[in-house]
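SUBJECT: A protein chain and its fold
Encoding: whole-number codes for local backbone shapes
Chain under study, with its fold:
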Amino acid sequence: MSLDISDILSAWPFKPGEVNVRRIMGDDGLEKIQLRLDLGMLQMEITGRPDGTRPHGFESLLDYFRDELAKHRQVTGSTGDFHLDNEDCEALRSESIMYYHRYLAMFVLGDYEAVAGDTKRNLELFDFCLTYAEDDQDRYYLEQYRPYVQMMYTRARARLAMERHSATEALGIVRAGIKDIQKTCEEFEQGEDVAGTELAVLKALASEIESREQLDPVARLRKQLREAIEEERYEDAADIRDELDRVEHQAE
């Protein structure tokens, strides 16, 4: 069997400026994700760890270290002296890059459920290193990427809400995501300009959702009802509630 992948690459030209990604069926009968790069490609499993391995018998290295932490707590009754050394942190960072490649590919493919799962998992990995890394450099290294991952996590969850035709829920998710990024900047004493791109993307998404919400009579009325109640305009709220009931019944 030839190890040369030139034929595969020539049949799938790389397009600069785009995320070149596709789903394929593997020889094992399981679906895979392929990400085309300028000098080759990455192939990833859809579930579990993207490279298909099971470190120390666990689904991921993060799961392994979580188990080690639980064992340490059981033996010592505390987590205070549990630490990750430089090698541990480097291995976890490498694993997070695998998940980054997969959630980026999944976002292009529109699989927002998978994106939400992988970004949430990477944020948990960041938290784990921040809490247990022995060295300060290892502890804070991943924090430079946190706003980006928070943005992608927010975008994925908002898109899922929009697929459920819940503009109000989607808008709430985006606004909460903006606050989370702003909080991250405050905690690490960074100006919001550090996360300027991420915040701009989410603010643009919020504007998009607000435009859709205005076109959705049910979402618009629910928003008006919420505002009327918050402002204690109870007579207006009663009228809006009646109108909302009427519109919802018409839609059934």
